[in-house]
Specification:
Elements (H helix, E strand, L loop, with lengths): L1 H18 L7 E5 L1 H11 L1 H21 L5 E10 L3 E4 L5 E5 L4 E14 L3 H67 L5 H36 L5 E5 L12 H11 L1 H21 L5 E12 L12 E11 L4 H70 L5 H35 L4
Helix pairs in contact: 2-4, 3-4, 4-5, 4-7, 4-9, 6-8, 7-8, 8-9
Length: 439
């Protein structure tokens, strides 16, 4: 039965928007919340940036791993050699020695860092942590975009509910105006009562117009987020449901400690800072490397006369390097790294506190929203009952138009409050999930 009623309401909305003036240039587009989130995850520009940053982190991790490999270089050159002019000590010419005019060299060199306090391993581990940090940033951005889409979707639902309530009350006000017009024609009421009834309808029409424009604006915003044409008018296919069950506050707090992207990212920053301290400390350790090389050179200039032949040589060995200035400079670098590590640790504590505060606030706001739905529902029943009583009295000329108008306005206000309360309860539920990092 509920599904049939929902389908009738949806069909009415579609028919209404197909003939409404503000949608003449917009195409109604039915969309479920799940579809909207899926489209946003695929098309939102911010997520494309985050995915590109994650890919850059993967590439950086690969670059860091390649530092384990040896460095190899090859060089070759060819040159024209001129004859050698030999001068005496007084710069007078002694003689000219003929040289082979073509010369070339080939060189192949390789080196491999054997040990420097594990700097390469630590650098790779840091790059891996930074990659994980980029992945957490992507998850955080995904949750932000999900929440933005959900908020816009619920706002559109709220606007459509407002339009529906306003249209229903406008119809009732129209019936009231017909009755007042009839009574005015019989000289049973004054013209100001007729004007007041007509003014009430005009106020509703203005509210409906503003709601329609807000609907179009939100649809335009969502079109960019979802990768849809900006000429659509989003029509939610899901009805608001306030019957939502949640777990205890401690349940969501515990989940947030283990899953919230901001908290996990702060933890990764602490690990990165600790790795950076280790990397800076390696500057106090000499670098031990292995090297090898092969050289081929022509002509042989070390003989007399010069021989137009190739000389071939090779070498292998170990080298030990140490920058002596690290003895008095590196201490400050290490201390700076330690200070940065303290900052990240304090940031982790601060982030954890903010997450716990956010979960607590979201949980209480959700409980409040549920109570607001209950109160608004009771108020709606009372306002409807009052409206029927006043309407009956008015038709029997027992009350004036002002009282009828007040009853109508009260009915309209509580119905709008109830519709908003139901949507707000859903919003607070999703806000609770986002605060716990599980949206």
């Amino acid at each position: 039965m509920k599904s049939k009623i929902g389908n009738l309401v949806l069909a009415s909305i579609l028919i209404f928007f197909s003939v409404a003036g503000y949608s003449q240039e917009l195409t109604p587009y039915q969309l479920s919340l799940e579809q909207a989130i899926e489209m946003g995850m695929q098309n939102h520009q911010q997520l494309k940036i985050s995915q590109a940053q994650l890919e850059a982190g993967r590439q950086q991790f690969g670059v860091s791993k390649s530092d384990r490999l040896p460095s190899v270089s090859f060089s070759a050159n060819a040159a024209y050699l001129g004859d050698v002019l030999i001068l005496d000590k007084d710069w007078s010419k002694v003689q000219t020695e003929s040289m082979p005019h073509f010369g070339n060299t080939f060189s192949l060199q390789a080196s491999q860092l054997l040990y420097k306090g594990g700097v390469i391993k630590k650098s790779i581990e840091m790059a891996e942590l930074q990659q994980q940090l980029a992945a957490l940033d992507l998850i955080g951005n995904q949750q932000d975009i999900k929440f933005l889409i959900i908020s816009n979707y619920l706002d559109i639902q709220k606007i459509l509910n407002q339009i529906k309530v306003l249209e229903q009350n406008k119809a009732l006000a129209g019936q009231l105006l017909d009755n007042v017009t009839k009574l005015y024609g019989e000289d049973m009421v004054t013209r100001n009562e007729l004007i007041r009834a007509d003014l009430q309808i005009k106020n509703m029409e203005q509210a409906i117009l503003a709601a329609k424009n807000n609907h179009a604006i939100l649809s335009n915003q969502m079109s960019y987020a979802l990768g849809l044409p900006n000429t659509i008018l989003v029509i939610p296919t899901e009805s608001a449901d306030s019957t939502i069950m949640v777990q205890s506050l401690s349940f969501y707090t515990e989940i947030a400690h283990g899953q919230h992207p901001a908290l996990l990212a702060a933890g990764k920053n602490v690990e990165i800072a600790q790795k950076n301290i280790g990397i800076q400390k390696t500057n106090w350790i000499p670098a031990l490397s292995a090297f090898g090389g092969y050289n081929m050179q022509r002509p042989l200039t070390s003989t007399t006369p010069v021989m137009d032949m190739y000389s071939n040589s090779w070498q292998v060995g170990l080298s030990l390097n140490y920058d002596l200035d690290n003895l008095y400079k590196n201490k400050r670098r290490v201390n700076l790294s330690k200070s940065q590590a303290i900052i990240t640790q304090e940031s982790l504590t601060y982030t954890q506190q903010n997450v716990e505060i956010g979960v607590n606030s979201a949980y209480l706001k959700f409980q409040e929203a549920k109570q607001q739905v209950k109160i608004a529902d009771e108020s709606k029943k009372l306002a409807n009952e009052n409206y029927e009583i006043v309407k009956s009295k008015y038709l029997n000329q027992l009350v004036i138009t002002a009282e009828m108008t007040d009853a109508s306005n009260a009915k309209l206000n509580v119905e709008l409050q109830y519709a908003d309360a139901v949507i707000n309860a859903l919003f607070q539920y999703y806000n609770l999930l986002k605060s716990a990092g599980t949206l």
